[in-house]
Amino acid sequence: MPGAFVAIEGIDGSGKGTQAGLLAERARDAGRTVASLSFPLYDDNPFSAAVADYLNGVFGGVDEVHPELAGLLYACDRYHARPELERALAENDLTVCDRYVASNLAHQGAKLTGADRERLLGWLETVEFGEFGLPQPDLVVLLDLEPALARTLVSRKAARSYTAMQEDIHESADEHLAAARAVYLDLAARDPQTWRVVGVADAEGFRDPGAIAEDVWEAVCSIS
Predict the structure, then answer these.
(1) How far is 201 from 199, CA to CA, in rounded Å?
(2) Which of 53, 107, 115, 205 is deepest in the core (most CB within 10 A)?
(3) Residue 24, by phi and psi: left (phi above 0), alpha (psi -120 to 50) or beta?
(4) Three-state SS across the chain?
(5) Contact, 201 vs 120, CB < 8 A?
(6) pLDDT band at 69; cut points 50, 70, 90
(7) Does pTM surpass 0.85?
(8) Cα 27 to the chain's mean position, in Å?
(9) Do 12 and 154 meet the contact criterion of CB atoms below 8 Å apart?
(10) Are the C-beta atoms of residues 200 and 120 closer than 8 Å to each other?
(11) Of residues 1 and 28, more confidently modeled
(12) How far apart are CA 224 and CA 221, in angstroms?
């Protein structure tokens, strides 16, 4: 029987990589076998190379690339990883993904509104879960953060393999991050059995990563 599958989601700067790592560490300390993946892969596959070009603005600005075309690049990157993902699920008690299909829905859906957004969301889900047969996560943890605070955390990021810029075209667009956050929250509201929303800031500012990790762990324990 496949192990539990958890996706960590949120806008840029919300701490997904940190929390995915802390979750994996906590699960291993609890005696569970764990596999970790991060999307996009940014390995030698042609799709993640194209995603890097997109995020570096090679194809145009954030609103100049049609969301179906941009979304397909991310979907194909995950399809490339499907054998690895299926193997991880079969061989481990817990598989943790830093970003998954919901990232595609949020960031590409952010470019559209109303019926156009709904059509795009349905199309991307059909591509990723239907045509490409990607596994559905048992739990999606949304690390919720206001875009203004997210920009602060993005500015503290270390150098990344896919870009030489301080901010990629998603991270540098405040309106895009706000719209992506709105799509994320809408997706969470639509499926409360699968999604858990964890705030990463409060009235006093950014929360301690350890305290956030406790909330994430509690959510994971609720499905296992």
Answers:
(1) 6
(2) 107
(3) alpha
(4) CCCEEEEEECCCCCCHHHHHHHHHHHHHHCCCCEEEEECCCCCCCHHHHHHHHHHCCCCCCCCCCCHHHHHHHHHHHHHHHHHHHHHHHHHCCEEEEECCHHHHHHHHHCCCCHHHHHHHHHHHHHHHHHHCCCCCCCEEEEEECCHHHHHHHHCCCCCECCECCCCCCCCCCHHHHHHHHHHHHHHHHHCCCCEEEEECEECCEECCHHHHHHHHHHHHHCCC
(5) no
(6) very high
(7) yes
(8) 20
(9) yes
(10) no
(11) 28
(12) 5
Q: What is the tally of structural domains in the chain? A: 1
pLDDT tier for residue 44 given thresholds of 50, 70 and 90: confident
Chain position carrying tokens 């150098």 = 159
Q: What is the pLDDT of residues 72-111, one digit of tens each?
A: 999 999 999 999 999 999 999 999 999 999 999 999 999 9
Please give the average per-residue pLDDT across 144-158, as a whole number: 70
pLDDT given for residue 155 in this prediction: 55
Look up the domain containing 183 and give its range: 4-221
Output the six-digit token pair for 140: 């999606």
The answer to whether the peptide bond before residue 83 is cis (omega within 30 degrees of 0) is no
Cα 72 from chain centre: 15
Q: Is the pLDDT of residue 166 over 90?
A: no
